[in-house]
Amino acid sequence: MSMELLERIYQQALPSLEGKRVREVRIGLGLLAVELDDGALAVSYVLRDELPPGCAVIPAETPLRGIEAREMAAWAFKGRNPLFTSLGVAVLNSVVDPAAIERHSRDKLTELIRPDDQIGMIGYIEPMTHVLKSRTAKELIIFDRSREQLGAVYPESRQRELLPQCDILLVTGTTTLNRTLDAILQQAPKAREVILIGTSTPLYPEAFRTTKVTQLAGSLWRKEHRAAIFSAISEGRGMRALSTYGKKVFLAVPNR
């Protein structure tokens, strides 16, 4: 479903992609940014632990600057690895209508949670854990491949056992990059709310209508902060450093 979902998003975005080209690409250790020739830009994650070995993750013969926006956007579902997919998702998010999204954005996460809810997280987002812990009496169930060695999360091997217990499930948007979203959703049949969260979340609510995802929590990025965003990414900085340059949005997925 992940590839079908991203292809569906691509088809929705095509009218906004027409005639545009990629002006600049910046790929850091944890984040990347893509800017189009009209100044629109977006940020997505770099799953560096899931990239192929070697120094040429993007072959020398593959152009980035100057290619048609629709060509790079198609990498979202045609990409040969998660880096290509992430570049494609960034292009897709760069052409959304920010004014329309802000009009429909309603941050109601805390309203969705009941005191006795079992909350699960795929992807450890520290600021969010503090918010969630204040809203439920139960221990959070958190999975994150990159943090398993630290002992602060459950091992991925227990997802099949624990995800079915979740009433609320927050899933990192990077699951669209490494094609793991489908399997996760299948393991959480009880979840009343499934929230896709993070800057890699595609901001296309209509495309998620036929999925179990109920809310999208992503980010818009301002053209006027372009220099600061690209500089921070070049220096290997993360979302905490970029947070002042973007705006978080919360969108409900239309009912089936």
Question: Can you summarize this structure?
Answer:
The protein is α/β, with parallel strands linked by helices.
Q: Could you characterize what this model shows?
A:
The chain is α/β, with parallel strands linked by helices and 256 residues long. The protein has 2 domains: 2-95 and 223-236, 2-Layer Sandwich (Enolase-like, domain 1), CATH 3.30.390.100; 103-217, Rossmann fold (3-Layer(aba) Sandwich), CATH 3.40.50.11590. 31% of the residues lie in helices and 19% in strands. It is built from 11 helices and 9 strands. It has helices at residues 2-17, 69-73, 75-78, 82-94, 98-104, 109-112, 126-133, 159-162, 181-186, 226-234, 239-242; strands at residues 22-27, 31-36, 41-45, 119-122, 141-143, 168-172, 193-197, 215-221, 246-252. The strands form 2 sheets. It has a 6-stranded mixed beta sheet. Strand 1 and strand 2 (31-36) form a beta hairpin. The longest helix is centred in the N-terminal third of the chain and has 16 residues, at 2-17. The protein is globular and about 50 Å long. It starts with a helix and ends with a strand. The model has no long low-confidence stretch (mean pLDDT 93).
